[in-house]
Amino acid sequence: SFLDRNSPQREVRIKENTSWSCIHGIERWRENCGCTDGGHPGWNQRWRKPLRRALNLLKYYIDQHYRNAGQLLFKDVNKALLDYGRCLCRAVDQEEFIALHQVNKLSLRERIEAFMLLEMQRAGLASFSSCAWFFDDIARIEPLNSLSYALKGMELLRELKGPDVQAQFLEILEEAYSNNHDLGDGKRIWTDMVAPRKTGPVDMALIGLCLDGQDRTISFPGLKFELHTSGQNLRLEYEWIKTGQKKEKNFSMLDKKDAAGFPLVTDSEAVFSFDSLDRRLKNHVLCTLDQSREDALWKDVLRQASFMKHCLQWPFDEGQKSPQAGLGIMSLGVVFLSLQTGSLSSDFAEYWKELFRHNHHYREVLGQKITLELETLTSGNDPQWAEGADLVSRSGRIGVYPDLFTAQNRLWFQFKETVHPEILRGFFIGKEQQI
Questions:
Q1: Interhelix angle for 48-70 vs 166-173, to 10°?
Q2: N or C: which end of the chain has fewer CB within 10 A?
Q3: Mean pLDDT taken over the chain
Q4: Contact by Cβ (8 Å): 177, 185
Q5: CA-angle at 170, arms to 167 and 175, nearest 5°
Q6: What share of the chain has pLDDT > 70, as a percent?
Q7: Using CA atoms, how far apart are residues 27 and 24, in angstroms rounded to an integer?
Q8: Is 114 exposed, middle or buried (0-12, 13-18, 19+ CB in 10 A)?
Q9: Residue 213 pLDDT class (50, 70, 90 cuts)
Q10: pLDDT for the residue 416
C-alpha cells in the first residue's frame, strides 16, 4: 500500500474538539451554532441536537448487542470489527476473515449471524456521516441518507433478537423540526421519507415483474434477487450478499394491470402496484426500461442510417449551408457512422460542430454513444487502441468529447508500455486540442 511504501516522516498532535469548518469547535455536528451552508438565511439548525441524540441512542444498543452476541462468535469482538474494513474493501475475502476471527468453527447459521452483526455495526457507523449535520436542514439528502443507514441498523438489530428501539428513537427524533414546515418534524420525515426507502420482498417482486423481458436476476449493492413465474404464481428468491442471508417469498399476480400498464401483485393480504415503490426504485425501473428501448432504437437508427454514410464525404456545393439529407430523427446515427468510418468531409464536420456547440443535449447523447463504442473497442483480449484513438480524434473535430476515464485507466495500467505514443496522446487529448 501507499503507507507501506511511504512511512510517516513526522508526528502531529490533533487539537481535540476542533474542526476546519466551524469556528465554534465541533458544534456544527451537534448544536444550532450558526455555521451552515445551503443558501437559506434565517433558517435554524436546532434539529442537529435531537438527530445526534437519536442516533447515539441507536448506536448504544447496537454496540451493546454486538458485544453480547459477538463474544460467542468472535475471538475478539473489537479486533473483528476493526478488521472488517479489510473484508469490505476486498483485501481479504469472507472465508479468510472468518477463519481468522471465529472463536470456533462456525456453522452456516452462526456465520450468517456473525456477518449480520458486522453489517449492523457498519450501518450504525455510517449513520454518523459528517455531512448529515453539515448543511441547513434535516430533510436534505445527507440527513436522509444517515437516517436510512439507521433504519438498516435498526432492522438488523431486531432480526438479531436485539431490542426494538424504534419508539424511543422516534420520540427523540420528533424534537427535530425541518425549516420547511410542510415536511414537519423528524418523526414524520422518518415515516414519509426514510421508511419507504427500505427495499423489501414486495418491492423486489414488483421490480422483477415490471422489468419482465429484462434479466430476471437483478443486483443492487448488497442485494441479489430473482423472480420465478408459473402462471399467476410468483416465487421470489433473494440474498443479502454481505451476510449470506437467503430467503424466499411467494406472491400472486393479478389479471389486471395498473393505469401505466404495470402488473399488480398480491401477497393475499394486500395488493401492490408500481406506485407502491419508493421513488428511487421507480426511477430504477423507468431508467432500465428506457435504456433497453433506447438500445433497441439506436441499433435500428444505425441500420436505417447506413445508406447515408458514403455521402458524408461529399463537399457542399457553392452557397450550401447545411446537409441536404440526414438531418431528421436519424441524424445522430448518421453522424455516429461517419465518426466510425472516418467518412466526414470538412463541410459536414463544421456544420455539426456548430450545431453541437448550440445543442448541448444532442452533444451529450452522442458523447454517451461514443463512450460506449470506445468501451467496446478497448476492452477484451484484443483492444483496438488505434481505432479508439481515431474515434476520439474525429469526435473532437465536431466538438463532441466522450468520457475517456475508463479507457484511460485501462490503457494506463495495462497497456501503457506497449502502445504507440501517438495513440497515448489520442487518449489524453484535452477539450481544446486536436490530434
A1: 160
A2: N
A3: 90
A4: yes
A5: 140
A6: 96
A7: 6
A8: buried
A9: low
A10: 67
> Can you tell me whether residue 239 is helix, strand or coil?
strand
The secondary structure of 23-38 as a DSSP string is TTSSGGGTS--S---S
Name the pTM for this structure.
0.81
Amino acid at 129: S
Amino acid at the residue 184: G
Map grid coordinates 422516534 to a residue: 170
Cell of 343: 467518412
| CA dist 382 → 55, 330, 377, 385 (Å) | 52, 31, 9, 9
List the grid coordinates of 223: 442485494
In this structure, of 136-145, 181-190, 245-254, 423-432, the range with the lowest mean pLDDT score is 423-432
Angle value at C-alpha 165, between 162 and 64, nearest 5 degrees: 45
Query: From the centroid of its chain, how far is CA 158?
Result: 27
Q: What span, in angstroms and rounded, lies between the C-alpha atoms of 352 and 397?
A: 9
Angle at 317 between CA 316 and CA 322, to 5 degrees: 50
**229 closest CA partner among 252, 262, 203:** 252
Please write the tens of the pLDDT for every residue from 58-81.
Answer: 999 999 999 999 999 999 999 999
- The mean per-residue pLDDT over the stretch 129-137 comes to 95
Per-residue pLDDT at 435? 36
Kindly report which listed range (59-68, 88-97, 121-130, 419-428) carries the lowest average pLDDT score.
419-428
Starting at the edge strand that comes first in sequence, how are the strands of the sheet with 245-257 ordered?
217-220, 223-230, 233-240, 245-257, 263-266, 271-272
Find residue 263's DSSP bridge partners: 257
Determine the number of helices (DSSP H) and then strands (DSSP E) in the chain: 17, 6
CB 325, CB 311: distance < 8 Å: yes
C-alpha cell at 46: 436546532
